[in-house]
Design a protein that fits this description.
The chain is mainly α. The chain has helices at 4-33, 35-48, 90-93, 96-103, 111-117, 133-141, 165-178, 181-197; strands spanning 54-60, 66-72, 121-123, 150-152. Strand 3, helix 6 and strand 4 form a beta-alpha-beta unit. The chain is globular.
Protein backbone atom coordinates (compact mmCIF):
# COMPACT_ATOMS: atom_id res chain seq x y z
CA UNK A 1 0.00 0.00 0.00
CA UNK A 2 1.31 3.42 -0.94
CA UNK A 3 1.50 5.87 1.94
CA UNK A 4 0.11 8.98 0.27
CA UNK A 5 0.96 11.24 3.21
CA UNK A 6 4.59 10.11 3.02
CA UNK A 7 4.68 10.78 -0.72
CA UNK A 8 3.18 14.23 -0.14
CA UNK A 9 5.74 15.02 2.56
CA UNK A 10 8.62 13.98 0.29
CA UNK A 11 7.21 16.05 -2.58
CA UNK A 12 6.87 19.06 -0.26
CA UNK A 13 10.44 18.65 1.00
CA UNK A 14 11.76 18.33 -2.55
CA UNK A 15 9.88 21.47 -3.58
CA UNK A 16 11.28 23.41 -0.60
CA UNK A 17 14.85 22.38 -1.44
CA UNK A 18 14.38 23.14 -5.14
CA UNK A 19 12.78 26.52 -4.39
CA UNK A 20 15.56 27.55 -2.00
CA UNK A 21 18.20 26.45 -4.51
CA UNK A 22 16.50 28.48 -7.25
CA UNK A 23 16.30 31.48 -4.91
CA UNK A 24 20.00 31.37 -4.04
CA UNK A 25 21.22 30.81 -7.60
CA UNK A 26 18.89 33.42 -9.10
CA UNK A 27 19.71 36.09 -6.53
CA UNK A 28 23.47 35.52 -6.84
CA UNK A 29 23.34 35.68 -10.63
CA UNK A 30 21.07 38.71 -10.45
CA UNK A 31 23.38 40.58 -8.07
CA UNK A 32 26.40 39.88 -10.29
CA UNK A 33 24.75 40.74 -13.62
CA UNK A 34 22.94 43.79 -12.27
CA UNK A 35 25.89 45.23 -10.34
CA UNK A 36 26.48 47.97 -12.99
CA UNK A 37 22.81 48.97 -12.69
CA UNK A 38 23.08 48.97 -8.87
CA UNK A 39 26.05 51.35 -9.12
CA UNK A 40 24.28 53.65 -11.60
CA UNK A 41 21.09 53.81 -9.50
CA UNK A 42 23.12 54.49 -6.35
CA UNK A 43 24.89 57.43 -8.02
CA UNK A 44 21.61 58.87 -9.38
CA UNK A 45 19.91 58.62 -5.97
CA UNK A 46 22.79 60.45 -4.31
CA UNK A 47 22.82 63.18 -6.97
CA UNK A 48 19.04 63.61 -6.84
CA UNK A 49 18.34 64.00 -3.12
CA UNK A 50 19.72 63.91 0.40
CA UNK A 51 19.55 60.67 2.33
CA UNK A 52 20.78 57.07 2.20
CA UNK A 53 20.90 55.03 -1.00
CA UNK A 54 19.24 52.03 0.59
CA UNK A 55 15.95 52.33 2.43
CA UNK A 56 15.51 49.87 5.30
CA UNK A 57 12.11 49.16 6.78
CA UNK A 58 10.80 46.57 9.22
CA UNK A 59 8.44 44.14 7.51
CA UNK A 60 6.63 41.08 8.83
CA UNK A 61 7.89 37.79 7.40
CA UNK A 62 7.48 34.05 7.84
CA UNK A 63 5.68 33.05 11.06
CA UNK A 64 5.02 36.75 11.71
CA UNK A 65 8.70 37.44 12.49
CA UNK A 66 9.93 40.96 11.68
CA UNK A 67 12.94 41.60 9.45
CA UNK A 68 14.52 44.53 7.64
CA UNK A 69 13.62 44.75 3.97
CA UNK A 70 16.01 46.56 1.61
CA UNK A 71 14.97 48.84 -1.23
CA UNK A 72 16.55 51.61 -3.24
CA UNK A 73 15.29 54.81 -1.63
CA UNK A 74 12.60 56.37 -3.81
CA UNK A 75 11.10 58.77 -1.25
CA UNK A 76 12.34 61.99 0.30
CA UNK A 77 13.84 61.63 3.78
CA UNK A 78 10.87 63.49 5.36
CA UNK A 79 8.29 61.06 3.90
CA UNK A 80 6.01 59.41 6.50
CA UNK A 81 6.50 55.69 7.18
CA UNK A 82 3.34 54.43 5.47
CA UNK A 83 2.40 51.62 3.12
CA UNK A 84 1.86 52.57 -0.53
CA UNK A 85 -1.93 52.29 -0.17
CA UNK A 86 -1.99 54.74 2.76
CA UNK A 87 -0.43 57.60 0.82
CA UNK A 88 -2.94 60.13 -0.48
CA UNK A 89 -0.26 62.17 -2.22
CA UNK A 90 2.68 59.76 -2.62
CA UNK A 91 4.05 61.72 -5.59
CA UNK A 92 4.67 64.73 -3.30
CA UNK A 93 7.17 62.66 -1.32
CA UNK A 94 8.71 60.74 -4.22
CA UNK A 95 12.03 61.94 -5.65
CA UNK A 96 12.57 62.40 -9.39
CA UNK A 97 14.75 59.31 -9.59
CA UNK A 98 12.32 57.57 -7.23
CA UNK A 99 9.43 57.97 -9.65
CA UNK A 100 11.40 56.17 -12.34
CA UNK A 101 12.75 53.33 -10.20
CA UNK A 102 9.31 52.72 -8.67
CA UNK A 103 7.61 52.69 -12.06
CA UNK A 104 10.15 50.14 -13.33
CA UNK A 105 10.31 48.27 -9.97
CA UNK A 106 14.09 48.80 -9.89
CA UNK A 107 13.67 49.95 -6.28
CA UNK A 108 12.89 46.33 -5.32
CA UNK A 109 16.21 44.89 -6.58
CA UNK A 110 18.12 45.14 -3.25
CA UNK A 111 15.71 42.50 -1.96
CA UNK A 112 17.95 40.00 -3.73
CA UNK A 113 20.09 40.41 -0.60
CA UNK A 114 17.04 39.57 1.55
CA UNK A 115 16.66 36.38 -0.47
CA UNK A 116 20.28 35.36 0.13
CA UNK A 117 19.82 36.01 3.85
CA UNK A 118 16.78 33.74 3.90
CA UNK A 119 14.31 36.49 4.83
CA UNK A 120 12.48 36.24 1.52
CA UNK A 121 11.94 34.16 -1.58
CA UNK A 122 11.55 35.26 -5.19
CA UNK A 123 7.89 34.21 -5.14
CA UNK A 124 5.60 34.48 -2.14
CA UNK A 125 3.19 36.87 -0.38
CA UNK A 126 4.55 40.42 -0.29
CA UNK A 127 5.85 41.31 3.21
CA UNK A 128 3.88 44.14 4.81
CA UNK A 129 4.65 46.72 7.51
CA UNK A 130 3.66 46.21 11.16
CA UNK A 131 0.87 48.78 11.09
CA UNK A 132 -1.09 46.81 8.46
CA UNK A 133 -2.75 44.92 11.30
CA UNK A 134 -5.89 43.84 9.46
CA UNK A 135 -3.96 42.29 6.57
CA UNK A 136 -1.58 40.51 8.98
CA UNK A 137 -4.50 39.08 10.97
CA UNK A 138 -6.25 37.77 7.86
CA UNK A 139 -3.01 36.19 6.65
CA UNK A 140 -2.52 34.47 9.99
CA UNK A 141 -6.06 33.08 9.94
CA UNK A 142 -5.40 31.61 6.49
CA UNK A 143 -1.91 30.31 7.44
CA UNK A 144 -0.38 32.49 4.72
CA UNK A 145 2.32 33.69 7.13
CA UNK A 146 3.68 30.12 7.33
CA UNK A 147 5.69 30.66 4.12
CA UNK A 148 8.47 33.06 3.20
CA UNK A 149 7.35 36.38 1.73
CA UNK A 150 8.45 37.13 -1.82
CA UNK A 151 9.53 39.89 -4.16
CA UNK A 152 6.51 38.97 -6.27
CA UNK A 153 3.46 36.74 -5.97
CA UNK A 154 -0.01 35.99 -7.29
CA UNK A 155 -1.40 39.21 -5.81
CA UNK A 156 1.29 41.23 -7.60
CA UNK A 157 0.33 39.89 -11.02
CA UNK A 158 -3.39 40.34 -10.26
CA UNK A 159 -3.58 44.00 -9.30
CA UNK A 160 -0.73 44.71 -6.87
CA UNK A 161 -1.53 48.14 -5.36
CA UNK A 162 -5.03 48.23 -6.87
CA UNK A 163 -6.67 45.42 -4.87
CA UNK A 164 -7.86 45.38 -1.25
CA UNK A 165 -6.57 43.29 1.66
CA UNK A 166 -9.10 40.49 1.24
CA UNK A 167 -8.29 40.08 -2.45
CA UNK A 168 -4.57 40.02 -1.65
CA UNK A 169 -5.05 37.25 0.92
CA UNK A 170 -7.28 35.34 -1.50
CA UNK A 171 -4.44 35.24 -4.01
CA UNK A 172 -1.85 34.52 -1.30
CA UNK A 173 -3.93 31.59 -0.02
CA UNK A 174 -4.36 30.29 -3.55
CA UNK A 175 -0.58 30.33 -3.92
CA UNK A 176 -0.13 28.57 -0.57
CA UNK A 177 -2.54 25.84 -1.70
CA UNK A 178 -1.14 25.32 -5.20
CA UNK A 179 2.54 26.31 -4.98
CA UNK A 180 5.02 24.42 -7.11
CA UNK A 181 8.00 25.31 -9.29
CA UNK A 182 5.91 25.55 -12.47
CA UNK A 183 3.58 28.05 -10.79
CA UNK A 184 6.58 30.00 -9.47
CA UNK A 185 8.03 30.27 -12.96
CA UNK A 186 4.67 31.40 -14.38
CA UNK A 187 4.42 34.10 -11.71
CA UNK A 188 7.96 35.31 -12.45
CA UNK A 189 7.27 35.51 -16.20
CA UNK A 190 3.97 37.35 -15.61
CA UNK A 191 5.73 39.73 -13.21
CA UNK A 192 8.28 40.66 -15.87
CA UNK A 193 5.45 41.35 -18.33
CA UNK A 194 3.54 43.44 -15.76
CA UNK A 195 6.62 45.45 -14.86
CA UNK A 196 7.35 46.07 -18.55
CA UNK A 197 3.85 47.55 -18.86
CA UNK A 198 4.03 49.29 -15.43
CA UNK A 199 0.66 47.76 -14.53
CA UNK A 200 -0.74 47.95 -10.99
CA UNK A 201 1.93 50.34 -9.71
CA UNK A 202 1.01 53.53 -7.89
Amino acid sequence: TIDLSNVANKASALYSISKRTMDIVSSLVGLILLSPLFLLVAILIKLDSKGPIIFKQIRIGKNSKPFYIYKFRSMKIDAPNLSTEEFINASDFTTKVGKFIRKTSIDELPQLVNILKGDMSIVGPRPVIEREVRLLEIRKECNVDSILPGITGLAQINGRDNIDDYEKVKYDFEYLSKRNLVLDIKIIINTVLKVAKSEGIK
